[in-house]
Amino acid sequence: MADDYFTYKGILFHPLSSNENDLNFIENEFQVLDDDIFNITYPKSGTTWLTEILSLIRSKGDPTWSKTVPNWERSPWIEVIDVAKRLNTSSERPPFMTSHLAKSIFPRSLVGSKAKVIYTVRNPKDVLVSLYYFAQMTTFYKDPESFEQFLELFLKGEVPFGSWFDHVNGWMELNGQSNFLLLCYDDLLQDLRGGVVKICKFLGQELDDETIDLVTKHSLFKNMKENKMANFSLLANYFDQSKSPFMRKGISGDWKNHFTVKQAEHFDHVYQERMNGFHWIFPWDKN
Ligand code: PPS
Fold this sequence. Notes:
The protein is an alpha/beta fold and 287 residues long. It is 40% helix and 9% strand. The strands form 2 sheets. It has a 4-stranded parallel β-sheet, with helices on both faces. The longest helix has 15 residues, at 261-275. Residues 41, 43-49, 126, 130, 133-134, 219-221, 224, 247-250, 254 line the site of 3'-phosphate-adenosine-5'-phosphate sulfate.
């Protein structure tokens, strides 16, 4: 990884995937349309899972589209170089768009629009572990020196797409709006079918029980792992899956296999400080 990160409004990005000019365009000129559907996440929180579920809902449980078109075409990441400029006309608009952008630099035209936002959160300790492996296998991140060092960078928000705390607290400002659906990776693992039903309801899509079963089946981890249009095996230049597979474990609580007691206490301390004053309660807050 030769290139260094650059900063846009205090948030780190990798020059392979984004540039300042495009980010400025996205924030200030990209026109959000009322029919848009956004799949928004902090990295490693269930992005590709949601793209798969949304694709399968759209194709009424038929996996052909998901198995023939890469997920980054089905639901493009708007922050990737040239993507937002290309999509900024209604004729080029895909059925869904994905983004890891913080709310503070997301298109301003979202405000007041009826566009639907699905925001998926995941236990930040598991996000960190997933990101730690991802950083080693992708050219979009600098290689971590150690888990300890990466943990500190994560807590300080010195990783691409910035601070998990700022991301979650920023997007959660929309919670309660009728065009905002909050999902939790950890809940989807517990009850994927229930999650699919919730998403269908939010999108106003009525699917029968059999179709919902199909959507659920094809978006299971084991099935997505085998789908080369979802597992990023087509992008071998950017992802070295011999170091760590993109579809790695797909579980909740893997952080327990990585954190020392001291690291977990330190993480919890920073978490309490950074989430202080916010009233949201996530599944991991209850343990
Ligand atoms: S990215 O790079 O930000 O777009 O990554 P993202 O898709 O958000 O997150 C990748 C993690 O999600 C897991 N994953 C799943 N878990 C359960 N079920 C399904 N179907 C599924 N699909 C993806 C994937 O394995 C990564 O988590 P880890 O913990 O690394 O396994």
